[in-house]
Amino acid sequence: xxxxxxxxxxxxxxxxxxxxxxxxxxxxxxxxxxxxxxxxxxxxxxxxxxxxxxxxxxxxxxxxxxxxxxxxxxxxxxxxxxxxxxxxxxxxxxxxxxxxxxxxxxxxxxxxxxxxxxxxxxxxxxxxxxxxxxxxxxxxxxxxxxxxxxxxxxxxxxxxxxxxxxxxxxxxxxxxxxxxxxxxxxxxxxxxxxxxxxxxxxxx
Length: 204
Description:
- This protein has about 200 residues and is α/β, with parallel strands linked by helices.
- It has seven helices and eight strands; from the N terminus they run βαβαααββαβαβββα.
- The chain has helices at about 30-40, 50-55, 60-65, 70-80, 105-110, 125-135, 195, and strands spanning about 5-10, 45-50, 80-85, 95-100, 120, 140-145, 165-170, 180-185.
- An eight-stranded mixed β-sheet has the order 4-3-2-5-1-6-8-7, sandwiched between helices.
- Helix 3 packs across helix 4 (about 70-80).
């Protein structure tokens, strides 16, 4: 079964909106490597409409320009790009298509397709939220920036149901960015204060 990984730039206060306005001062070789290992390794991209339109409006031009980011632009261009949307789209970026049918069924079918390369998601917050809830997202890569943006869309919306996660790995960059990789936990913890108090410092 193929793995689905999602990567997001996120501020300390959970904001994921408009990272182009606040994340570039923290971009270095470590972050570039992390992005490439998650998104660049994918041969299939699963994207929300807004993210796709932003990518399609920028990456083809970057590939054609042949600058230092042309290699990543070519990887993204060569990848199969599947857009989650209910709107009719006219595609100008190669290898692009609309996800057909029910999201859960269609994504489950994608995971069952042959191949070893992961299916990558970048941004696409609404898609990430839905796949987390459905248990179809295998890895959530959060590049946590040491800044509180204090306005904008946050990754997790307010709801009555908690979403327990399991930390798979963590790595701190020189810029202070922390790369955290999570998976959805099997269940929420049930222990209370009586359990926790055993770990409090005890007087001799």
